[in-house]
Design brief:
heterodimer; A: 73 residues; mainly beta; five-stranded antiparallel beta sheet; 5 strands; globular; B: 680 residues; alpha/beta; 62% helix; elongated
């Protein structure tokens, strides 16, 4: 599954950051392999999505969250 | 001694900078960019320390324009000038912050670590072992609280000790075993060599195309991703030894506030309420100081007129420079209030939430969540709003925002709308509603809809090099710090007065000259014609005839053929020309043309206007089609030289102000033509 499918409050571990233009940017923001994230809120219409990464909040568009392969905890 | 502040965005870097340098700071544009370099200085033990504050960035591989500046600055200064880099890190978010720290440290630059926001650790249930961290990183670590000014003395002392620090290497690019990097070994640190290869390659990338280049692109991208992951692996080991998480699992305050502010229903309600308050305060609060300023200027003008000898210079002062100056300063209250509210929203962290909840909608129109704020601000004044687009990383999104912001109905259009609406509707309420108010509201909506429409058109036309993205940190909420807000207000107001003000002043002097001077023969003829005339309206009549004979009047006559299809005569033509200094000049100009004594009494002007007869048609000048055509023209036309100047300044290209002028004025002409021709 990808980070875009996480429901509110669900926690997951990042398994892979799929190669894309933003791969480096996503990793830089702390979304690297093995990192724990949880879904916090969705903006109206479900996009963008806010995640909790180590106590800070990161907003990602749905299409960006699709690049994060995750495994539920 | 020269130090540089580097760090991630939202780490309180600017607050630290403000606290360190106080009143000494200056903002100067870095050559060739729109990004400003902030510099200042302080004295410590009688040594002057120069401080440069660089835009926040997450890594040395930049994405936005401001991040590029930071990376470039650091790489260019590897060998000289910088004595120390003070790396400002958010103590509550150490892991992500340390990524950039390790990159800079690997360049071989002396860097000390300032751990900011120590006070936030408590609410995040975290504890940082500072001596251990210092040991692990092999550098000097200073805890500070920039907001309260705590730890600054220790920081300053540490800055002087910094060259004793000797950091260890976190990452050697040779580890990646890649052909590209093999050349990287040499005298300087391996990582700085790699950074040089990378930046050379990036310049090459812009010139080369083709399959071999694609390959290289994929390869370097992969390298950067690998490097970043390797760094994080090492950093997380350090974090495990130095940061203790207390077990208590409680939502932190920011997340509790966000569950309301980002709520699908309440979130939008709160946003619209905020909008409403911004909108109201820009109009209502600014009304009073605006009135005082106008009074001051009119008193000063009257005083000078009656006390100065009547010559060209006093005329230029009273009819050109003073009205021009008042035109600038009258808008200061609105601009200051707008900046104040925007600074409050920015400093508290709410602004990023607005971007977050509106991104989806704005994206459809080629804009970005971050475009909302300039568009809202455009209802007050396009000038500061265009300056506020600087934080939009994507170049195309930013350009489109700049181009369409002036379509939002700004406060300068309000006097024009008010005057024209008064011609269509009598003041009495129709069905209990003030129809003039309704019309004006409609004009504001029209502006917003057209801004979205044109954003969409530009989205289709403009080529996109950079992919649009929205990876946005939503920083913790903080109470706004007054010192920060005061600094922002002061710098931005100064910027407006001196840069936009200069242009407005020059234009108003030119306009004054054109409207008060003309071929001498014609002016002599007017004097002769009224020599015997003694009625009390003599001055007004002479003035009106002089205006017709002036260069501005000739210009009006010259453009009459082009504006005739819109229903305008040469008199309106003059008003259109003078409106190019500022739209609200329309009111003053028509009142001069139609020789109305008082400019301020809009009722009176309205009554006179409704009596005017068009010399060409013999019918009333201000019929319904003409008024509607004028309303539409003023809503869409680019009639603000200051806005064009700011667009030029922000885009660093003559192309965009020209595009902005042509599309807006062309569209205004077309729409006015359609309105007039279909209705008449």
């Amino acid at each position: 599954m990808t980070a875009a499918e996480l429901k509110k409050g669900e926690r997951a571990t990042i398994k892979e950051v799929i190669y894309c233009d933003l791969q480096c940017k996503l990793i830089e923001m702390g979304c690297y392999c093995g990192k724990e994230i949880s879904m916090l809120y969705k903006a109206p219409f479900g996009d963008p999505i806010a995640f909790d990464i180590d106590g800070y909040t990161l907003g990602l568009r749905r299409e960006e969250a699709l690049k994060l392969k995750v495994e539920l905890l | 001694m020269h130090i540089v502040l580097v760090g991630n965005p939202n780490t309180g870097k600017s607050t630290l900078f403000n606290t360190l340098t106080g009143q000494t700071q200056k903002i100067s544009n870095l050559p060739g960019t729109t990004i400003e370099e902030k510099t200042g200085h302080f004295f410590h033990k009688d040594v002057k320390v120069h401080v440069t504050d660089l835009p926040g960035t997450y890594s040395l591989y930049p994405n936005g324009e401001d991040e590029q500046i930071t990376a470039k600055f650091i790489l260019e200064h590897i060998d000289n000038k910088i004595n120390t880099i003070v790396f400002v890190a958010d103590a509550g978010n150490l892991e992500r912050n340390l990524l950039l720290y390790t990159q800079i440290s690997d360049l071989g630059l002396p860097v000390i670590l300032a751990l900011n926001m120590m006070d936030m650790l408590e609410s995040k249930n975290l504890e940082v072992d500072i001596p251990q961290l210092s040991l692990e990183l092999q550098t000097l670590v200073v805890p500070v609280n920039a907001r309260k000014g705590e730890g600054l003395q220790q920081l300053k002392d540490t800055i002087f000790k910094s060259n004793q620090a000797l950091q260890n290497t976190f990452f050697n690019p040779v580890e990646l075993q890649n052909d590209l990097i093999k050349n990287a070994e040499g005298s300087s640190t391996p990582y700085s060599k790699w950074q040089r290869i990378y930046s050379n390659y990036k310049q090459l990338k812009n010139k080369l195309t083709g399959p071999s280049n694609e390959d290289l692109y994929l390869q370097t991208d992969k390298l950067i991703a690998d490097e970043t992951e390797k760094r994080f692996t090492k950093i997380s080991e350090i974090i495990a030894k130095t940061v203790k998480k207390k077990v208590e699992k409680r939502k932190n305050p920011t997340q509790r506030i966000d569950s309301v502010l980002l709520h699908p229903v309440y979130g939008f309600l709160i946003f619209f309420t905020t909008l409403f308050i911004i909108f109201q305060s820009i109009f209502r609060l600014a009304e009073y100081p605006k009135g005082w300023i106008e009074t001051c200027f009119s008193v000063a003008t009257t005083f000078l007129k009656s006390n100065l000898p009547d010559n060209v210079f006093s005329q230029m002062l009273c009819d050109g420079i003073l009205p021009g100056l008042s035109g600038v300063i009258v808008f200061l209250p609105q601009i200051i209030i707008l900046f104040l509210i925007l600074a409050l929203l920015e400093d508290s962290g709410y602004m990023t939430r607005v971007s977050f909840i509106t991104d989806r909608l704005m994206r459809k129109f080629g804009l970005n969540g971050k475009s909302v704020i300039p568009l809202i601000g455009g209802m007050a004044c396009a000038i500061p709003s265009i300056m506020a687009t600087r934080n939009i990383e994507n170049k195309k999104d930013r350009l489109i925002t700049i181009l369409v912001t002036p379509l939002m109905s700004c406060s300068a259009r309000l006097p024009v709308y008010t005057l024209l609406a008064g011609l269509l509707f009598v003041p009495e309420n129709t069905y209990g509603i003030d129809m003039r108010g309704l019309l004006i509201l409609g004009m504001y909506l029209l502006g917003f809809v057209m801004a979205l429409l044109f954003a969409f058109i530009f989205k289709l036309i403009l080529r996109q090099k950079q992919k649009s993205f929205f990876v946005l940190e939503l920083p913790d909420y903080r109470l706004p710090k007054w010192q920060n807000i005061w600094m922002t207000l002061k710098l931005k107001t100064k910027d407006f007065v001196f840069n936009a003000g200069k242009i407005i002043l020059i234009v108003s002097v030119i306009l004054w000259f054109l409207a008060s001077h003309g071929p001498e023969k014609k002016f002599a003829a007017i004097d002769a014609r009224y020599a015997q005339y003694t009625a009390p309206d003599k001055d007004a009549k002479v003035k009106a005839d002089q205006l017709e004979a002036s260069y501005a009047g000739s210009l009006g006559k010259l453009i009459e053929p082009t504006i005739k299809p819109l229903g305008y005569d040469w008199k309106i033509g003059i008003a259109l020309i003078t409106s190019f200094a500022a739209r609200e000049v329309f009111v003053g100009t028509v009142s001069t043309i139609y020789s109305v004594g008082s400019v301020d009494d809009e009722q009176l002007i309205g009554a006179t206007l409704s009596k005017q007869v068009n010399q060409n048609t013999g019918l009333k000048t201000y019929t319904l089609p003409v008024v509607l055509s004028l309303l539409v023209f003023y809503a869409f036309a680019m009639q603000c030289i200051s806005t064009l100047a700011v667009t030029y300044r922000e885009t660093k290209s003559m192309k965009w102000p020209i595009v902005q002028f042509v599309y807006m004025s062309g569209f205004a002409y077309l729409m006015s033509l359609i309105v007039y021709q279909t209705l008449s």
